[in-house]
Amino acid sequence: MDLNAQNSGLLHKIELMSKINNNRHSFFDFIKNNKIEIFVEFYFYSDLFFCKQSYGLDGSSILLSNSTKSFWDGLTPVLGKIYNFTKEDNSLTPLLQFFSFEIKEKIQTISICRTSEDSLILICNKPLTTLLVQSFESINSKNCTDIQSNFAGGIKNYMFSLDFSESLEDYKNINLPANNDIEDLFENALLKELFNRLTFYFQSPSAVTKSSKAAANVIFATKSVFVPELLHKHLISILKDVLEDSSDLIGFNFLGQAHSVTAAKEFLKVI
């Protein structure tokens, strides 16, 4: 037995874990840095698993996420183990029920890790690794926004707010049965997808924060002059993937330019 090799391997693992634990990052960082196309976190509630949060899902797929514990127990019986499924060997088939037709067409592989009895993570078209799972588990949910650097080099910081409440209510009325006991779970998951997408659309030096459950404040940092009405139309168009025609009801309120770091932070409610 090569004790030196064992010690070296152990030290390498400790160093990796130390780097992960000391470099807590955002969900945005996790998705962007690892070039993840489609991500879903499932969690267990009231005898079923549901989508808790996602990136890259449309609204239809989120509403298809409810699934039984016995299904996942059979498919992913060992906690912490990574399971891989591919279209090539048809092992993917049982999982396609959770995706809309449009997304099914894009999926070649699915990789899953059961992180606990009550939760699991799933990514498409990229293999999960132990390091990726650890990276997900080290996500810092607190929003950290650096506004200080925005006020340099001729950058203008425009403020606007988005309100999803009316569009979301319309989407639910069309797509969910009346008096659905799990309506709030689907609503939360839809909002997570919307906010996650906004964070990607308005990357640094722009910034996004939630101002209420179904609303967001956005600082759009740019050196160019832009037309707010056109930006609103563009956002409606790209968010149709989530809310379909109900995205037409997304509220948009343009509030002009933030002329100081203090004004920007106050608008974003950054402490």
Q: Give the helix tally.
A: 10
What is the tally of beta strands? Answer: 10
Helix percentage range: 25-40%
What structural category characterises the helix and strand content? alpha+beta
So what's the overall shape? globular
Largest sheet: 6 strands, antiparallel
- Beta-strand residue fraction: 15-25%
pLDDT under 50 segments (min length 5)? 1-22
C-alpha termini separation: 55 Å
On the 0-100 scale, what is the average pLDDT? 88
Please explain how this structure is put together.
By secondary structure, the protein is of the alpha+beta class. The chain is built from ten helices and ten strands. The strands form two sheets. The chain has a six-stranded antiparallel β-sheet with strand order 3-2-1-6-5-4, sandwiched between helices. The protein has a four-stranded antiparallel β-sheet with strand order 8-9-7-10, sandwiched between helices. A hairpin with a 2-residue loop joins β5 (109-116) and β6 (119-124). It is globular. The protein starts with a helix and ends with a helix. Residues 1-22 have low confidence and may be disordered.
Topology of helices and strands:
Blueprint: H1 3-22, H2 27-33, E1 38-45, E2 48-55, H3 59-63, E3 67-68, H4 69-75, E4 82-86, H5 101-104, E5 109-116, E6 119-124, H6 130-137, E7 156-163, H7 165-175, H8 183-201, E8 207-212, E9 215-222, H9 228-243, E10 251-258, H10 261-268
Antiparallel strand pairs: 1-2, 1-6, 2-3, 4-5, 5-6, 7-9, 7-10, 8-9
Brief account:
It contains ten helices and ten strands. It has helices spanning 3-22, 27-33, 59-63, 69-75, 101-104, 130-137, 165-175, 183-201, 228-243, 261-268; strands spanning 38-45, 48-55, 67-68, 82-86, 109-116, 119-124, 156-163, 207-212, 215-222, 251-258.
